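User:
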Amino acid sequence: MTDRALVVVRAGALTTVQDRGRPGYAHLGVPRSGALDPHTTALVNRLAGNPPDAAVLETTLNGCALRPRSTVTVAVGGAPCPVTVDGRPAAWATPVAVPAGALLEVGAAVAGVRAYVAVSGGIAVEPVLGSRATDLLSGLGPAPLTDGTVLPLGAPAGPPARVDAVPQPCPPAELVLRVTLGPRDDWFTARAVRNLTTCPYRVSPASNRIGLRTEGPALERARTGELPSEGMVLGAVQVPPDGRPLVFLADHPTTGGYPVIAVVRTADLPAAAQAVPGTPVRFVPVRRR
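Assistant: Predicted structure:
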């Protein structure tokens, strides 16, 4: 039994292994997957002394509890949350030494949705198609964590970062998503296109890693026929039969049969990982580059 391992004491609502994902396999029907907030993933890896592509844990809402079998360095970022080691407060967004056998508790988010936990050496589960990411849609990668799961750790790549703390963006009070209209905006009435970019929407509680669902005015279609399935990209704003925009996130399907009215700029998507249900959403049109 290796001592380079992490025992999951409390898995939380949804904790998964994530990294940069599986780009380049859409033609085989494999989603990209990967961390919903890649910037925070790279940051906590740097704090823990890992390369940016090391696998981390992505928690949802109520965190998780972990017990390392050897002394490790841990960094927790993303949604602000309390962090304790054997019940004693520890720093958030800072490298923290966790002794062998100690209990690391990542508490419930006080703002935002998802925390990211990097451990020195990275989570070393077996890669699938070059990635260790859990894909909830296709089922590739390790299953979501359960209590008692033992996760292997890699060898430390370097020392932790020499910092006291690092700034991170706050979870959005309003989610502003810049969109380029198309490719199927002509399937909607002019009023629907105007409503998308002028009416207020809110994040729906039904949102998940596959897509951010919204609540607000339904978008009226100008064409009622069936659209043959076509390729879907990260950030595509698909409009299902209920007329409410759905923004595709990391675990999105590679094809879809509902029209895509617009596509969100990739740089705006990490904030969607931290947008709690009820957060106002604004779609802002930008010109094609």
